[in-house]
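Collaborator request log, item 7. Partner lab (contact: R.S.) asked for a structural prediction of Stomatal closure-related actin-binding protein 1 to inform their binding assays.
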Amino acid sequence: MTKISPIVEVNMHSEGVLFVSADVSFASNSFPKYKLGADNLILEQQKEGNLGPPLKDVVEQEASQLLEQHKRLSHKHLSVRDLASKFDKNLAASAKLSDEAKIREVAPLEGHLLLKKLRDALEFLRGCVAGRNKEDVEKAISMVEALAVKLTQDEGELIQEKFEVKKLANFLKQVFYGIQSFLIESWINCLNAFVKFDDLDY
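Returned to partner:
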C-alpha cells in the first residue's frame, strides 16, 4: 500500500525581499552600545576614542601658552628697558663731555689774548729798562713765548679730543635709537598677545 503525502507549494515573492548593496558605508564598523539611564531611558554610549580633548582643556592650554609668552616678553622688555636706560645715561654723559670741550675750546682763545697782551707789555718794559732788570724782562718774554707754544699744542690735542667725543656721541645716539625702536616693537608684540588672550571664548 502506497502512502501519498500532500504537496505543499510555497510561493516566494521575490519582490518582497530587499538586498543590501555592498557599496553602503556605515557610520561605524561595530554595533552601537546602549546603557540604561535615568527613568529607565535607553541611551547610546559614545565612544571615547572618537572624541577630541574637551574645549575647556584646549582653552586652558592656549591661555597658559599666551601667559608664558607674555612672561617672556615682559622679561625681554625689562632687559631692553635697562639697556636703553644705560645708553641714555651714556648719551647724557657724552653730551656733557661735548659741552666741557666747548668750554675748554674758549679758554685757549682767551689765553692767547692774555699772553699777547702780556708779551706786548713786557716788550714795552724791555725798552724802558737796562742791566739786570732788562735781563729779567727778556727771561719773562721767553717764558711767555714757551707758554704760547704749549698752549698751541694743547689746542691740537683738544681738537682731536673734541672729534673723538663727537664721534662717540653720534654712535651712542644711533645705538639708542635702535634700542628704542626694538623696545617699541616688543611692546606691540606684547599688546597683540594680550588682544589674542582677551578674544578667547571660554
